[in-house]
Amino acid sequence: MSADRPLILVAQPHLAPLLGLLSPYYDVMALWEESGRARLTEAEALVTAGEFRLDPEMLERMTALRLIACFTVGYDGVDLDWARARDVAVTHAGDANAEDVADHALGLILAHRRQIVAGDRQIRENGWTADAKMLTRSMAGARIGIVGMGSIGIALAERAEALRMRVGWWGPRAKPDLRWPRADGLEALARDSDVMVAAARATEENRGMISRAVMDALGSQGLLVNVARGQLVDEDALIAALREGRLGGAALDVFETEPTPAARWADVPHIVLTPHSGGATQEAVAKMAQMLLANLAAHFAGKPLVSPVS
Question: What is the pTM of this model?
Answer without folding.
Answer: 0.92
